[in-house]
């Protein structure tokens, strides 16, 4: 197993801005980050415990587990029409492995919503980059009458030629759990000055979590 050092996103962004180098639009390195495949009819949801036929294209999960993909059912998506619940019949995990470059910083972002009308004790989600827990404390919240989407962003540095992003349900394993949508990973450009500054931060192993842009209506971005 490889270990990942996590850097402070705000500090690297400040160094990058100070360098005067313009950023290009980020490219999402994940496949099916908004869970639009498979196709789910409007107002329904599907459960699938098999990866045959790309049931949840691009993502993996343990054999025998069940992932739930919803389209305008018990809430609306943050992006597109589909989103995923991580406690369909019991707590489970989904993950995706991407090619990475050693020493490269990556921005990881996604939107989370607690399940409608369910307490924080059953809505927990943890996020891992390799073996490193990014979500400390566990992401959770009390569900309201609609999906209440909140964006989370992390920055991590790869130490191997591949890296794995994983989401795991936490809390009561009772078929009610937190929702995930619009997941993205992109590289963080590091020009000379920012790269040197970021290298210093790596030794400290600093982690920062940022919650951004609440979207109470669950409307597509």
Automatic annotation (TrEMBL):
Highest taxon of the lineage: Bacteria
Keywords, sorted A to Z: Signal
Key word RNA-binding present: no
Membrane-crossing residue ranges in chain numbering: none
Region forming the signal peptide: 1-24
Keyword Ion transport: no
Chain ranges of the DUF642 domain: 28-185
Pfam families linked to this entry: DUF642
Record-given protein name: DUF642 domain-containing protein
């Amino acid at each position: 197993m490889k270990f990942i050092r996590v850097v402070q996103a705000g500090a690297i962004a400040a160094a990058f801005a100070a360098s005067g180098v313009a950023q290009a639009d980020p490219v999402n390195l994940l496949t099916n980050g908004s869970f639009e495949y498979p196709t789910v009819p409007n107002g329904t949801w599907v459960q699938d415990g098999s990866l045959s036929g790309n049931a949840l294209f691009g993502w993996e999960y343990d054999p025998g587990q069940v992932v739930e993909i919803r389209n305008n059912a018990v809430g609306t998506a943050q992006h597109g029409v589909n989103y995923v619940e991580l406690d369909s019949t019991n707590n489970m995990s989904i993950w995706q492995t991407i090619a990475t470059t050693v020493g490269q910083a990556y921005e990881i972002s996604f939107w989370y919503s607690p399940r409608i009308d369910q307490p924080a004790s059953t809505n927990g989600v943890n996020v891992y980059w390799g073996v490193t827990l990014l979500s400390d404390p566990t992401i959770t919240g009390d569900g309201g009458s609609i999906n209440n989407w909140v964006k989370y962003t992390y920055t991590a540095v790869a130490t191997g030629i591949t890296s794995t992003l994983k989401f795991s349900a936490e809390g009561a394993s009772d078929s009610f759990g937190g929702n995930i949508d619009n997941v993205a990973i992109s590289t963080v450009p590091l020009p000379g000055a920012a790269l040197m500054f970021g290298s210093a931060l790596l030794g400290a192993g600093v982690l920062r979590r940022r919650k951004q842009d609440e979207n109470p209506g669950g409307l597509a971005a």
